[in-house]
Amino acid sequence: MTARARYITSAALTLCLAMSGARAQEKFQTTDSPPPAKYQKMEAPPPPPPPVLNQASGVRLSEPADHSKFEALKGPFADSAAVTKACATCHTDAEAHIKKTIHWTWNYVNPRTGQHLGKENVINNFCTNAKDNEGMCGVCHIGNGVKPGEEYAFNKQTSVDCLVCHDRTGKYYRLPPTRGNSACAAMFEGRDPINFTEVAQHVGLPGRENCGTCHFNGGGGDGVKHGDLDSSLIRPSKALDVHMSEQGQNFACSECHLSQHHEIAGSRYDMIAKDEGGTGKPGLRRDVTTCESCHGATPHPKPSLIGYQLDAHAQRLACQTCHVPKMARGGVATITDWDWSTAGKLYNGAGYYEEEYTQGNGEKRHTYWSIKGDFKWGENLVPTYKWFNGEMIYTLADTKIGDKKAVTPINEPQGGWMDPKSRIWPFKEMHTNVPYDAGNKTLVFNHLWGADKTAFWGNFNIKKAIAAGMEIEHRPFSGEIGFLKTVSNWPITHMVAPKEDAVKCGECHAQKSRLANVPGVYMPGHTRFPWMDFLGLAGVGLTLAGVAVHGGLRIALTKKHKEDA
User: What is the pTM of this model?
Assistant: First the structure.
């Protein structure tokens, strides 16, 4: 164990082991290495920064009302459900609208592929699965009142949490709706009590802070999942994001992700990879989140040769390919590699974590954590470029995993150079060694969260945790655990740089091109076909020779003509 390892004390994994009475299985042996030099209790995350004012927030008819004047919000309120009941006295249809959206249902059937997606169905290669771990995932889910053993149906009244999206005080937070082991309870210690009346009277249109509560922290922490979404976007510089910066447009997320009846435009499950509709009818925005819906399909300055050429490029290159030159460049790192096979190691019978990476803003990040395994981080990364037509094919729980691929794609972008709907897009590739059913050749549901003895975040027995997760889901489990190399692909579309910082021509039209690994691409300055080069040089040589011969004959004949005269 390195000297910088951190030992999780009684507030964390020590108590969770005492509660569960479980020990690590043979796969995960207790380390006999010297004790860490520094002992530290697992800490709660820092309080959120104050809200950013005056964010541009979509199309609306009027400014939000002053809710402190409403009699229904005078309080007192015991909890968020009581606030929701008060909200419903005016917003009578809001709850019904929300319960039809994917933010609520965690369920989506892709009309193009027919796959059943959403957190209800998808297994990812971060914390593996939201299903059966609703207690932890419920910190983000916009519902109230789930109890142990309940599904996330939330059919009762006042079950929608209005505050998680509409709080503008920065003082509201959600706690897990069900009990977990002490390993994770420590992350919620030390928070100030919520003054529900104060929060209820200061609601408004969602800002970047509200959306970021979940979307910046997807996958288990700040910047973990997305290479282009992290807390640096709450107050970004103009160089980081020209749209969200207070020195730029100061956009809230809803300026692009427009909503109608709480149905929010833009979904990674059904993307528009090539928008040929542009801005739509004159003066009206289209209810999509594409760059073209604001900037049009031919946005580059004209009349100019370079403008026409760049518009031609946009037929085969996504706007983000040029205008998001690097990801994770705001001082917050993103995880690129995760190894679950090392999770569960203990020191003196308890879990621990190491922090061997310091990111750009000076904060340290876990490089090992007993409950999750090993991590690798990165910043200022050039994305991976792939053809993409907006469709993804997912490896789901019932997908049989073959032996032909060295790396199994969790989600695989569809498209190619012969597909007219495809363009070259930037992606973050996430590489993870995940547990799977080596006997049945399928991905597994891993029971991580809970106060019971089968939850991995408590007993560190991966086999027992997976057996429990598969039983809950009524899925067959062979009992044979293996670890599978996987990759997932996350489209990069935020952190848009100012136009002067866009990718330069020479970064692609060069021997070491950004697009070198994209199939079906011919680029002057990069692509080499020896036979084509030979024919081209031969053509130039013959042309020059022809010109020389023709010129020589003209000179000779002219001279002879003068002599004859």
Answer: 0.86
DSSP label at 11? Answer: I
Residue 450 has pLDDT above 60, yes or no: yes
Run of H or E including 548: helix 530-564
Quick one: residue 441, left, alpha or beta (phi over 0 = left, psi -120 to 50 = alpha)?
left
Residue 354 forms beta bridges with which residues? 5, 368
Residue by residue, DSSP assigns 408-473 as: EESEEE---TT-TT-EEEEEEEEEEEEEEETTTTEE-------SSTT-HHHH--HHHHHHHHHHHT
Going by their DSSP bridges, the two strands 263-264 and 352-354 should be labelled as: unpaired
**Encoded tokens for 428:** 């973050």
pLDDT tens per residue, range 302-357: 888 999 999 999 999 999 999 999 999 999 999 999 999 999 998 888 888 899 99
pLDDT greater at residue 426 or residue 81: 426
DSSP helix/strand/coil, 341:
helix
Written as one letter, the residue type at 458 is G
Alpha-carbon span 400 to 422, nearest angstrom: 28
H helical segments located in 234-372: 292-295, 305-313, 319-323
Find all residues with CB under 8 Å of 182, minimum gap 6, and list them.
11, 12, 13, 14, 15, 16, 19, 458
Q: What are the backbone dihedrals phi and psi of residue 437, each rounded to the nearest 5 degrees, phi first? A: -80, 100
The tens digit of pLDDT for each residue in 88-136 reads 999 999 999 998 888 888 889 999 899 999 988 999 999 999 888 877 7
Residues 70, 232 contacting (CB under 8 angstroms): no
**Dihedral sign computed on CA atoms, order 262, 264, 265, 267:** negative
Which tokens go with 289? 């989140």
Structure confidence at residue 190 (pLDDT): 72
What is the per-residue pLDDT for 446? Answer: 95
d(CA 6, CA 461): 22
Dist. CA 109–CA 129, nearest whole Å? 18
Dihedral sign (CA 433, 434, 438, 440)? negative
d(CA 70, CA 87): 10
The alpha carbon torsion through 511, 513, 518, 523 (nearest 10 deg) reads: -60
The residue length of the chain stands at 565
